[in-house]
Amino acid sequence: MKAPWDLLALRTEYYEAAIKAMLTSLEVPLEKLRFVRGTDYQLSKEFTLDVYRLSSVITEHDAKKAGAEVVKQVEYPVLSSLLYPGLQALDEEYLKVDAQFGGVDQRKIFTLAEKYLPRLGYAKRIHLMNPMVPGLTGGKMSASEEDSKIDLLDSPAVVKKKLKKAFCEPGNITENGILSFTKHVIFPLMKQDEVFKICRAEEHGGNVDYSKFEDLEQAYAKQEIHPGDLKASVEQVINKLLAPIHEIFKDSKLQELTKKAYPPAKKVAANAAVDEVSPAKLDIRVGRIVEVSRHPDADSLYVEKIDLGEEEPRVVVSGLVNYVPIEEMQNRNVVVLCNLKPAKMRGIESKGMVLCASIDEPKQVEPLLPPKDSQPGERIVVEDYDSGEPDDVLNPKKKIWEKLQVDLKTSADLFAVWQGNKLISKVSGNPVTTKSLINAPIK
C-alpha cells in the first residue's frame, strides 16, 4: 500500500543496481548472484495453497509474537501483520535457499520458520543475523527519517550535513550511531595492515591511529576523543566507501532509473491513492506560550499567546485551568494543532489547540511534551507519514480531525503515537512524549 505496482517494479530494479554496486565496491564477485522478485512465485497456485496450509497450523499468539520487532504493533492490528511472518517463512522454501540472513530484529520470524516449516514437510533452514546499527539521530534507524541514515547516493556535502547533526554525546558509547557505524562497518572492512585514523589538530593532541575498535571505544568513553573529531574521521571513511558506488551511478541509465524509482513526493501522491484521512494532513507544530491569562468569561479556560514560528503569536484558548497551574503555563513549550478552523470560545477566537493526554477516571490532563531541543514552529509529523504538506485548514465537514483523533494516544513507553507510529520532529526525528499518562487518548 506504500507505492503503486509500477513504481515498485522500478524500485526492485534500483535495489538490484544498488546492491551490485555496493558489492562491487567491496570487491565481491557477482557471478553467482541472482535476484528473484516475490511476484515470480508468490502469485502461483502452489504458494497460495501453502499460505492456507500454514495459516491452519500457526497460532495467532505465535504469529503476533514473531512480528513483534518488525511489524508495527497497534491495538487493532490488520490481518496482514499476522500473515507477514508466515509469508517470510515460506519464502525460504520457494527460493530453495540453505540459509536466510537478516538483522537481529528478525530472530522471532526465524524462530517461527524453524518451528512451522517442518510441519508442512519442508526443511529447517540456517539463520544468520547482524546487530542493528542505531540511527544517526539516536534510536532505531528509519527509512522515513532522512537524517537517521546515510543513503548510498548521498553526496559528500550531504554526508557532512547529516553527520554534523548526528547525536554523538561525549563519552556515550551505548546510544551512539556514529560509534556503532565504526564498529560494525568500518573496522570489519579494514584490511590487516590498515588503521582507523582520528584526524585532529596538533593543539588537540594530533592524529591518532586505532587498529582495534575496543581501543577506540575505550578512548571515547574516557572523552579522550572529541565528538567533532570522530565525526570528521568517519566522514572521510564514508565518502571513501561511497565513491566507487557514485562512480557506477554516473551511468546515464542508472541516473534515469533513480529518478523514476524515487520521484518527488508530489508525483508519488498523484499516482497513488491518497487517503483523505492521512495524518499528513495535520499541521502540528512546536509552540512556546509567551503570554497566558485566565479567560474573562470562563473559569476553566486559559487564553494563551503562542509563538509558532510565525510573524505574530497565535491566540489559543485551552481548558487547562483545573489541571495546570498558570505559572507552569507561562513560557511552557507545547504541541499545537494549527490547522483547525478558528472557533470562538466564550467570545474569544481560538486559532489552534494545545494537544494533551487525557484520562477520565480519575480525570487527569497533561500537555504533550515537545521533542528534545525543538524550537517554536518546528513541524511534528507521524512516523512513516511525513511526505507532502498539511492542509491549510482541515475541512470540518469531512471530520478529518475527528477520524484521526481516535487513533491518537500515548504508549506504554510514554510516546505520543498514531496507530502505533510515533509523533516525531520533522527536523530531528526526536519523539513527542508525555510526562506520566500511559495508554491515554490525545485530544
Automatic annotation (TrEMBL):
Major subcellular location class: cytoplasm
Compartments in which it is found: Cytoplasm; Nucleus
A GO term from the CC aspect: nucleus
GO biological process: tyrosyl-tRNA aminoacylation
Top-level taxon: Eukaryota
Enzyme class: ligase
One MF annotation (Gene Ontology) recorded for this entry: ATP binding
Catalysed reaction equations from the record: tRNA(Tyr) + L-tyrosine + ATP = L-tyrosyl-tRNA(Tyr) + AMP + diphosphate + H(+)
UniProt keywords, alphabetically: Aminoacyl-tRNA synthetase, ATP-binding, Cytoplasm, Ligase, Nucleotide-binding, Nucleus, Protein biosynthesis, RNA-binding, tRNA-binding
PROSITE patterns xref list: TRBD (PS50886)
Ranges of residues in domain TRNA-binding: 278-381
EC number from the UniProt entry: 6.1.1.1
UniProt record similarity statement: Belongs to the class-I aminoacyl-tRNA synthetase family.
Protein name as it appears in the record: Tyrosine--tRNA ligase, cytoplasmic
